[in-house]
Prior knowledge:
Low-confidence stretches: none
Helix content: 40-55%
Radius of gyration: 19 Å
Largest sheet: 7 strands, mixed
CATH class of the largest domain: Alpha Beta
CATH architecture of the largest domain: 3-Layer(aba) Sandwich
Number of domains: 2
CATH topology of the largest domain: Pyrimidine Nucleoside Phosphorylase, Chain A, domain 2
Structural class: alpha/beta
CATH superfamily of the largest domain: Nucleoside phosphorylase/phosphoribosyltransferase catalytic domain
Shape: globular
Strand order of the largest sheet: 3-2-1-4-5-6-7
Number of helices: 15
Amino acid sequence: MKTLIDKLHNGGDLTDGDIRYLVPVLLSDAVPDELKADFLAALHHKGETAEEVTCFVELFMERADDPKIDPAKLPGPMIDVCGTGGDGLNLFNVSTTIMFVLAAGGAVVLKHGNRGVTSSCGSADVLEELGVPIHLAPEELKECAQRFGLGFVFARQYHPAFREIAKMRERLTRQNSRTIFSLLGPLLNPVRPPRQLIGVFAPRLTTLFADVLRRLGRERAWIVHGLAENTNGIDDISICGATTIAELQDGKITSAILDTQWLGVPRARIEELLGGTASENAATLEGVLSGKITGAKREMAVANAGGGFVVAGIARDMNEGIALAREQIDSGRAIEKLRALQSYKPNAAQ
């Protein structure tokens, strides 16, 4: 491993063979965490390439538990909505909120998520607070997808190999040390959704992620990074400023700038979008879906759901997607999706 660390320090990229050697080493409890951390720091300092990220994803996916869900047998287009985190802003759970809006509008959302690592409240935390079952076995996940158009894919459950490095990752996160693991979360959904809306913490990552998803064979994706005043940006479509988008469609990657203000979404201040504890974020999610919370948080959810509808192929453009998102909330269908998932009882007669 020290030889590969030297290679990275000298600016060399890792080969597939290097990574095939490294992955079992990183997952081994026999290798000191300090040596693993040195390697991860060297790779991040060099800068991860699309080829390297793709190879890591493929090897980690080989070790994941595959729920074996066939997109062709679902009642709508399968999509995942997820962010890398790491923007340091601690917003409310935007992508978790919009999963219910998208399902209400005809998409099948199989959301990959975890407990909070870079924020105080991750998707697993807020869903658990809402009484949504998060520990779904493969058959239960499949049943939820087919019945409700929804399912939560708990990363810790479906990636058992990662348990060996969980403490090291958490320590590096607390030290604000970004590594390749800061990138991998949205790319490791074991369901392998053909369509994805991914938020990233830096604009340079939009095209990198699009290239990785192209190599992984995804049908369509938006990778977004939004601007917010006096910040480095957010891993969502922004309503505080412009959003950089890299789109993957039909094997081709294009880039664009989106400003939701052009689409009639009022500009907001980042302070209006901040989250809090699991309990506070659960109340926000429920309030947005029920229509009781309006203003910036509703508009943020509507804008991001609008993008999700476009990626899913349900809306032709953002104008249509935003209108569809508003309709799901105003009609009560979005909150009905939350209620349906809350009422699901795993391993019990339905």
